[in-house]
Amino acid sequence: MKKILFSFLLLAAGCVSSGRYDAAVAELDACKETGAKQKSSIADLEKAKAELQATLDQVNAQLKEANGQLESLNAEKQKLESDLTELRRQEEAARASAAIFQDLVAKLKGMIDAGQLSVYIRNGRMLVKLPDNVLFDPGRTNIKAEGKEAIAQLTTALQAIVGRKFQVAGHTDNTPIHTAKYPSNWELSTARAVVVVNFMIESGMEPQRLSAAGFADTDPVATNDSPEGKAQNRRIEIELLPNLEELPKLDEPAPSQPAPQPAGS
User: What's the rounded Cα separation, in Å, for the pair 132 and 144?
Assistant: First the structure.
């Protein structure tokens, strides 16, 4: 009897251990499956993280490029605004010069019509030209009576142009002169310019607004192959010097502006 009971107890104990074992195995399998799922989830998360990082890197690169483009656009905008300001300034200066030109032509209309002088633009310079025959006899520097009258009237008109300085330039044709007083056309053209400057001062022009220059035959306005051309080249030109604020900036080209048309012959 005791042997039968002992055997039953052993059998019961064996049955309990087998059940627990199976449960433990099942639990272990479940843990393995959960671990596998977690590893898969972690792998998916790492993949998604890598993709998001790549996208973020791409966005940062695009943002950096956009910032660079924005800086470039801002710099270009500032330059365009500066250019526009300069163009407006030059336009105002051009309008002011055109107004001076038209006003001078109106004041000197009588002298222009009489052939005593002409007003015109040449090589971007505003010039008043007095023909040689109005002012001087050939090879001489004494101003004729007709020339003095013309210079006096011209001086009065030029004095009214506020803030302007003037350069008086003497020009000759290409016929050489060789005298003790004037060894070449350089001396003759310069002497004539100085004589006109002095007479303009006598006529009331402030000396500090004047300068004199001689160009001999280096700046012709016509051919020297005919008497008519030589006559045009023998002249006194009075240039209205530009104000500094009218000049373009040194580092920028000046935009082309339409010049006023010549007045007189």
Answer: 10
Q: Does this model's pTM top 0.70?
A: no
Residues 19-63 have pLDDT tens digits of: 788 888 888 888 888 888 888 888 888 899 899 999 999 999 998
pLDDT tens digit sequence for 140-164: 999 999 999 999 999 999 999 988 9
> Could you tell me if 221 and 157 are in contact, meaning their C-beta atoms sit under 8 angstroms apart?
no
Tokens linked to 3: 């042997």
> Which residues, in sequence order, are CB contacts of 116 under 8 Å at separation 6+?
130, 131, 134, 146, 150
Residues 102, 63: Cα–Cα separation, whole Å? 57
Helices (H) and strands (E) in the chain, counts: 6, 5
User: 65 is written with which tokens?
Assistant: 């490029």
Helix (H, G, I), strand (E, B) or coil at 215: coil
Distances from the Cα of 216 to the Cαs of 6, 68, 176, 193, in angstroms?
A: 148, 58, 9, 11
Residue 120: both structure tokens together: 């015109």
98 within 8 A of 106, measured Cβ to Cβ: no
Angle between helices 145-159 and 2-107 (to 10 degrees): 140
In the beta sheet, which residues pair with residue 121? 126
User: Token match 């195995």: residue?
Assistant: 25
Kindly tell me the sign of the dihedral angle through the C-alpha atoms of 62, 63, 67, 70. Answer: positive
Q: What's the 3-state SS for 142-207? A: CCCHHHHHHHHHHHHHHHCCCCCEEEEEEECCCCCCCCCCCCCHHHHHHHHHHHHHHHHHHCCCCH
Which residue in this structure is represented by tokens 């044709």?
A: 173
The 10 Å Cβ neighbour count of residue 265 is 11
| Rounded Cα distance, 85 and 219, in Å | 35
